[in-house]
């Protein structure tokens, strides 16, 4: 028997779910909690399905019948009504700018304005491009954890476990941006933390004992390559910055008379300006280099393309020519070398060492404490390290 509004109003709430038919596939699903939900039962592609039409009385009996008839018309045309609903939602989201692609682009524009390093931006663009084929046209609020996992599994299937881990984190950043801009309510990547294969941790290679470091230092100071490369390697040994911080340095960053190098926030990993004390040997090296490149902005211009800095590969290739394999030493390894030996010396506060390395935690108070308290100790530490490095050549 077809339903009437009077019949629906008189229906009692069941103890378990109950279906009340109206005919032609339309029925009212009664929930124990009191909900009354319209559904249309149909078959498509040999499978039994149900299409949700809304809740009574927000959707009246007459409206439910109209929606049922519209669904039947789609079926007659060979279209799955449930799939059409998803398409309609996606089109509405596209029109309102709420699909993943649009929000991801907005997120990238924001972090660009925030001054994120170009190298980091390139990585984020590349990672999001991996996700776009699966998530790009989907409404941000409709994307489920299982959909994201499909995109992540494709990366994992190629053996790229670390890339999959970073992709999950970057997708999560897009969702949190959507939450912050009132276009999403949750971040489905949070529940996927334990779903991915944990990549094997490989520590950066570095020389971490004084005897082997002595051999490296003597070889660097005797190296006969380009002056820019020789100077950069010597300064890596003396100052142990991140290779990119040194390679891309401009002369305006150096105050040689004061013995200070100020690395701008745009080039530091923590996106905070980082000041480093320059010991005597470092100042001497920079003064000699200035005679060659001081007419340019870049302190370490590439020989083949002076408008660009020397590459990290230039430094690593020089180490290879000196006889140090990639399993023994890299340009980034100077940081691990200094960190290990400075800590082992027992002469310096570990927090001062971390501050000098530019390792800054999330605690803003602690960060300010590092800057304010450890500068004098870092100056003394730089002078001590300067003497130890030069003593290795004797």
Automatic annotation (TrEMBL):
Gene Ontology MF term list: DNA binding
GO biological process, one term: DNA integration
Keyword set, alphabetical order: DNA integration, DNA recombination, DNA-binding
PROSITE patterns, sorted: CB, TYR_RECOMBINASE
Domain Core-binding (CB), residue spans: 98-179
Domain of life (superkingdom): Bacteria
Domain Tyr recombinase positions: 200-382
Entry's transmembrane regions: none
Keyword Mitochondrion: no
InterPro entries, alphabetized: CB, DNA_brk_join_enz, Integrase-like_cat_sf, Integrase_catalytic, Integrase_DNA-bd_sf, Integrase_DNA_bind_dom, Integrase_recombinase_N, Phage_int_M
Keyword Cell cycle assigned: no
Family: Belongs to the 'phage' integrase family.
Name of this protein: Tyrosine-type recombinase/integrase
Native species: Stappia albiluteola
């Amino acid at each position: 028997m077809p339903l009437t509004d009077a019949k629906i109003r008189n229906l009692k709430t069941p103890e378990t779910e109950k279906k009340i038919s109206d005919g032609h596939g339309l029925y009212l699903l009664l929930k124990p909690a009191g909900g009354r939900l319209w559904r249309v039962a149909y078959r498509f592609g040999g499978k039994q399905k149900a299409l949700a039409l809304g809740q009574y009385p927000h959707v009246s009996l007459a409206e439910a019948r109209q929606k049922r008839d519209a669904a039947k018309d789609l079926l007659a045309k060979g279209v799955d009504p449930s799939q059409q609903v998803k398409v309609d939602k996606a089109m509405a989201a596209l029109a309102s700018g709420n699909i993943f692609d649009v929000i991801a682009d907005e997120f990238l524009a924001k972090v660009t304005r925030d001054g994120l390093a170009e190298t980091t931006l390139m990585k984020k663009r590349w990672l999001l491009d991996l996700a776009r084929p699966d998530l790009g046209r989907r409404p941000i609020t409709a994307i489920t954890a299982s959909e994201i996992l499909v995109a992540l599994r494709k990366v994992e299937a190629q053996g790229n476990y670390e890339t999959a881990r970073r992709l999950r984190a970057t997708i999560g950043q897009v969702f949190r941006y959507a939450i912050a801009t009132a276009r999403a309510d949750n971040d489905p990547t949070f529940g996927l933390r334990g779903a991915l294969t944990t990549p094997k941790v490989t520590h950066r290679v570095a020389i971490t004992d004084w005897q082997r470091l002595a051999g490296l230092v003597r070889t660097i100071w005797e190296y006969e390559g380009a002056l820019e490369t020789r100077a950069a390697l010597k300064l890596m040994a003396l100052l142990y910055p991140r290779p990119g911080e040194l390679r891309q340095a401009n002369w305006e960053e150096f105050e040689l008379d004061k013995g200070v190098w100020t690395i701008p926030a745009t080039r530091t990993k923590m996106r905070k300006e980082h000041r480093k004390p320059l010991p005597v040997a470092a100042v001497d090296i920079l003064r000699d280099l200035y005679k060659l490149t001081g007419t340019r902005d870049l302190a370490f211009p590439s020989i083949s393309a002076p408008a660009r800095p020397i590459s990290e590969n230039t430094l690593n290739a020089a180490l290879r020519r000196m006889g140090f394999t990639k399993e023994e030493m890299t340009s980034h390894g100077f940081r691990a070398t200094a960190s290990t030996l400075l800590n082992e010396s027992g002469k310096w506060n570990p927090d001062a060492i971390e501050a000098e390395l530019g390792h800054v935690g999330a605690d803003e108070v602690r960060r300010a404490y590092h800057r304010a308290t450890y500068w004098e100790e870092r100056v003394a530490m730089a002078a001590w390290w300067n003497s130890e490095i030069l003593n290795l050549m004797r």
